[in-house]
Give the backbone structure.
Amino acid sequence: MPERKFTVKPSLTTRGLSPENQETPLEYLQTDAMNNYQFFRRNHFDYPSLNQANYRLLFGGLIKRPLSLSLQDLSRFPAKTLKVALECAGNKRGHFEPKTYGEQWGKGAISQGYWRGVPLAHILDLTGFSSHAAEVVVKGYDHGVRKGSEKNETYARSLPLEKALHLDTIIAFEYNGQPLSYKHGYPLRLIVPGWYAMASVKWVRQISVIGTSFKGAFQTNDYMYYPSQETDEGAFPVTELNVNSTIQTPLDMEVLDGSRHCIRGIAWTGKGMITRVEISLDNGESWLDADFHPPASSYEWVSWQYVWNPGKSGEYSILSRATDSIGRTQVRKAFWNRKGYGYNAMDHVRVFVY
């Protein structure tokens, strides 16, 4: 009999069961367009129950023409496909010092692929929104009791009108050429390129135009940077992705032989493009340029590599840092904030070469 070969899929790393929160083991990834199985999962509540047969997307608020769109209605609008990386605002939270409360994400609460959908602006233009419009509120079907509160709440976020009208802010119905998976927002989710993924609301139910600032709990309590441990002084909202990089291989505390090795990883930013990725093999004393191909768009990560010949045995402290086209470079210590958002310190692994 011929030998049977099995393909072992890496399991996601569980950070929470109810609601389900799981991250991707990035060191296993050999592609930059990840399938549904590999895509990280971030939920605030248990998965919602949907009546797919009667699904409608509602538009209301400060508009002249309220809309109720079926999936078939939406399919008649011009669509576009964007390659976008989505990163949880709490990605790498487990690396903060001192520690912050919340899911202790490692490096894997980030994934990317090809999203296809209708620009939100196309539909908002049909509604005849008011000249007093300030923000667009997007409400999902997911709801429950928010952590730290006794109230039953629905997940909802708002975007400034300018961001909502950006032609790359889309209502997505496909991922990698297939309908969205249920666990990633089927049948519709918002995709907001360049912003942390809390803005890309899943299981979209209703979109409303308002003339004031939205005060929902996931807008003004969660997803705020709180620089102080004791007070809310100096707080400001989480929006655009910070410039960042991750070392995929070698792994932290890995033992290597003295032959040639490829240090590889990814780098990304929420504004501009990645223009440089550097590697240090001596804990930041000196820096070397890594190789990468510029991305086709500013919304995707770049895959980088550096071929390393250790030369001698011993312990090595490897760092990576990325720079983007607006001049932002990763620093040694991340900006600490009480809820642990936006971690983007230089990545760091230690290895021993024998």
